[in-house]
């Protein structure tokens, strides 16, 4: 049991994520810091978005690559999580990001989609894409996760 009274270990990964994200008093997570919105959680797929803002700037004045990397790590990891049985955990083992274009820090909406490629007994892989409001590719990546059974 957690302080919320919910036994997350009894829930599948998808049910746990849906329950946690819907809670009014859910525990904080990295998405709160960046203003992430959870748009979709389905088996093998996660879609999150955020609005760029001035404090996301790199020294060149555009959105820092770490913002896209965090978005990608989040959606790809959560895509893997949605496929896991109750009581099974995971963590990112490797993250690879390719940056295609810069994103201004003026409130542009960036949307990231993560989908699983393979979920095995001990490892899982996923891919992700970040696009801007016009649907233009900003960054894409892959991840390998270790699965804890």
From TrEMBL:
One of its GO terms (molecular function) is hydrolase activity. The keyword Hydrolase applies. Its EC number is 3.1.2.-. It is an enzyme of class 3 (hydrolase). Residues 61-139 form the Thioesterase domain. It holds the Pfam family 4HBT. Keywords: Hydrolase. This is PaaI family thioesterase.
